[in-house]
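During data preparation, a discrete fold description was generated, as reproduced here:
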Amino acid sequence: MKLLTVLRHPFELWNAPPWLSQRLHQDFPVVEAVQRSSYEGIEDYIRDAEVAITFSLRPEQFKAARKLRWIHSPAAAVHQLIFPELVNSEVILTNAREAHGPVVAEHVMALIFALAKCLPQAVRFQQKHIWGQELMWRGRPRPRELAGATLGLVGLGSIGRAVARHASSLGMRVIAMRENPGKESPEGVQQVFASSQLDEVLSQSDYVVLAVPVTASTVGLMGASRLAKMKPDACLINVGRGPLVDEAALIQALRERTIGGAALDVFEEEPLPTGSPLWSLENLLITPHTAGLTEKLWERHYQFISENLRRYLKGEPLLSVVDKKRGY
């Protein structure tokens, strides 16, 4: 059986290390593990592959892969693979949401702490050699406690569930929105709302965390009307994908200070252009899509891939299967 890994990204960490295919073949001798760092001529390699590990494929490349039965994306987001030919096929699609979720959740908590304790303002005062105690107390929002604050999770996937556990252990009240509110509430979540009740989640929350996939219904989810539903001192955090937020509307809300602040790890265009007005907003904390970074990333990937490969070879159900119709 042939397993093809083809990953090409300008950021080094997103590319598979050379040991990946070697270790897969060592642990699964029946598998011919082939690894490519370029999509050039990939049709020749994918034609007889049964399994592919990749971020994306073009429809014509997918059409050439006549033996393909399973695609695994090392990313959580799979919108770049949701094209009709794949969606309507019997090829299984899995993603790496469980590998990324716990790490991204730690980053979310770091952003919440930074916003609550006004750390970006403190850093700016430090750079200017200013003792900013009085200025920070007079600012808006002031430094505040997390215990007793309300955290609104938009999405209860692997990221949202992990954030809920962390936040509830700090004494935060955690509420959430998801498509199926009738399911049992995850650990730490006190109340779950339906998608149609997002405005209610926004109006109650001191911190709003976006952790939903990009679909037709979530693009531009946080536009001007939704931002207007937030509390005047509330903060928005996006670790999902850039298109979830209408950046022009957010810029206006932050400039007019109709919300307390925001922290963004993802953007409509990445890298964020140097001329973007987002850079100069003092009430916005920017991290350059680093929420999922960890030295353990590919070991985490390997443990997941190898477990699913074991299941695949035995004909058992795979983990983290994507509902291709829904896109996540």
